[in-house]
């Protein structure tokens, strides 16, 4: 495929100088990654070993659970870095043609990036039929490219509106159900001298992609059956509607423009600078770890369903989520797929994952279990947030189509969001510029843009 060499060189993944291979014990691995020194201990050394890279905080427990319960294969696990650090090492292995693990944790929006390089394999023929009903249609779509399935879903990020109940009570605000109501509430709070209602962080373009999906946009159409063709529609009416709306909130001083996931933003959240946080189901874990919900702001946080662009038909969207993919360097992809489908799918691992705020489970056995649904979330002061917000959103989520050059798209989107925040362009102008930029990039990489 003529795109692949060009794309690999311009995937915007910084290539690591040297490959970090698996540090694991037990028998020989099935792939190019040597399984001689594992982070975990392999209890059944006579069984074949599948190597795995993953960064979930409870991964050692998860791997131990799998190995103790499995009599066909054992897992040699290591954490070579989180997110981009892992992807850098994987990209190096792809370029070298050796050194990748058999199974790798990949965020859903990165799957097309590696699929187009033929670095991960379609796992439909390796046990997919046995687990298909364990996950929703939307969960499978997020890990698919065209008709191919390139990952086993683990966790997701159904979105909602986290808010300060004390601020809402003080200013007589009820949780808005539409974005129109959101703006009215924001203006009410501002007029009364209250805090900013939210924040437009230029460094979270995935949020705005999700909100555009919610408004009816289809930013990308891409099918691995036609890998050199891609549809790009970043400046349609729905996309412009969303960006013009948020640009208007910025212009009116109703929301802030601070980059998120920064000490400055967290300090503002703790200090009561924002009445709402538009985020995903994993946010309570992130906020708790950052020190939010302690001291003066303990017990004040609640969550409500995400406001809608059109109130009649609620649309659920997602931010974040990861899966286990089988790499093309796995010598035994069927055995590797058994690991991808089976690890982090047992009851004990799923329970530990959601109770400790490591994952929002996509496995339907956990997602719809009474224990999870009825859980009184401590961060939300005992609110049954899963029942009221996150589980319905996850079950209704229909999935998204991601692009094989997702990092470039997000970087370009961030640049346009920053310009909106500076007041130098309108939302519609940002959408037009983004369309021109991303189409130009796609054509440079050899794609035919439809």
Please render the helix and strand layout as text:
Layout: H1 3-9, E1 49-53, H2 59-69, E2 74-78, H3 84-96, E3 103-107, H4 111-115, H5 124-131, H6 137-142, E4 144-145, E5 148-149, E6 152-164, H7 165-170, H8 179-191, E7 198-199, H9 205-214, E8 220-222, E9 229-232, H10 237-251, E10 255-256, H11 263-270, E11 276-280, H12 283-289, E12 301-305, E13 318-326, H13 333-342, H14 347-355, H15 364-367, H16 370-373, H17 385-396, H18 406-422, H19 427-444, E14 448-449
Helix pairs in contact: 5-13, 9-10, 10-19, 18-19
Assembly type of the chains comes to: single chain
CATH topology of the largest domain: D-Maltodextrin-Binding Protein, domain 2
Question: Could you report the average pLDDT, rounded to the nearest whole number?
Answer: 91
CATH architecture of the largest domain: 3-Layer(aba) Sandwich
**Structural domains: how many:** 2
Shape: globular
- What's the CATH superfamily of the largest domain, by name? Periplasmic binding protein-like II
> Would you state the CATH class of the largest domain?
Alpha Beta
Number of helices: 19
Structure classification = alpha/beta
The helicity comes to: 40-55%
Radius of gyration: 22 Å
Give the amount of beta strand, in percent.
5-15%
Termini separation: 19 Å
InterPro entries: Bact_solute-bd_prot1, SBP
Keywords: Signal
Signal peptide: 1-23
Protein name: Extracellular solute-binding protein
């Amino acid at each position: 495929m003529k795109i692949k060499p060009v794309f690999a060189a311009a995937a915007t993944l910084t290539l690591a100088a040297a490959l970090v291979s698996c540090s694991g014990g037990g028998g020989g691995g099935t792939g190019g990654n040597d399984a001689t020194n594992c982070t975990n201990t392999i209890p059944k050394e006579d069984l074949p070993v599948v190597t795995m890279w993953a960064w979930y905080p409870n991964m050692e427990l998860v791997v131990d659970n799998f190995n103790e319960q499995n009599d066909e294969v054992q897992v040699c696990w290591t954490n070579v870095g989180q997110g981009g650090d892992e992807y850098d090492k994987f990209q190096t292995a792809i370029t070298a043609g050796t050194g990748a693990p058999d199974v790798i944790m990949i965020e859903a929006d990165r799957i097309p990036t590696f699929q187009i390089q033929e670095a991960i394999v379609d796992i439909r023929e390796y046990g997919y039929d046995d687990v298909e009903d364990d996950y929703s249609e939307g969960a499978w779509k997020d890990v698919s490219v065209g008709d191919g399935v390139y990952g086993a879903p683990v966790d997701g990020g159904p979105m909602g509106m986290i808010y300060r109940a004390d601020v809402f009570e003080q200013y007589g605000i009820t949780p808005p159900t539409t974005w129109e109501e959101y703006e009215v509430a924001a203006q009410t709070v501002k007029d009364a001298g209250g805090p900013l209602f939210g924040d437009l962080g230029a460094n979270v373009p995935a949020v705005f992609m999700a909100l555009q999906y919610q408004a009816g946009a289809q930013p990308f159409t891409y099918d691995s059956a036609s890998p050199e063709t891609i549809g790009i529609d970043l400046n349609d009416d729905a996309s412009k509607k969303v960006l013009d709306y948020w640009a208007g909130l910025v212009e009116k001083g109703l929301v802030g423009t601070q980059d998120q996931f920064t000490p400055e933003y967290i300090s503002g959240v703790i200090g009561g600078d924002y009445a709402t946080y538009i985020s995903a189901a994993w946010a309570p874990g992130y906020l708790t770890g950052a020190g939010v919900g302690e001291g003066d702001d303990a017990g004040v946080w609640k969550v409500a369903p995400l406001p809608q662009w059109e109130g009649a038909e609620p649309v659920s969207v997602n931010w974040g989520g990861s899966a286990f993919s089988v790499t093309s360097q796995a010598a035994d992809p069927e055995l590797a797929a058994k690991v991808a489908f089976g690890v982090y799918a047992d009851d004990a691992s799923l329970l530990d994952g959601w109770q400790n705020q490591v994952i929002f489970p996509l496995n339907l056995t956990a997602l719809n279990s009474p224990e999870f649904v009825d859980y009184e979330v401590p961060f939300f002061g005992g609110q049954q947030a899963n029942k009221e917000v996150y589980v319905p959103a996850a079950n209704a989520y229909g999935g998204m189509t991601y692009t094989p050059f997702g990092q470039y798209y997000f970087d370009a989107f961030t640049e346009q969001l920053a310009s909106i925040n500076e007041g130098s362009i309108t939302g519609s102008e940002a959408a037009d510029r983004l369309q021109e930029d991303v189409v130009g990039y796609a054509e440079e990489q050899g794609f035919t843009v439809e």
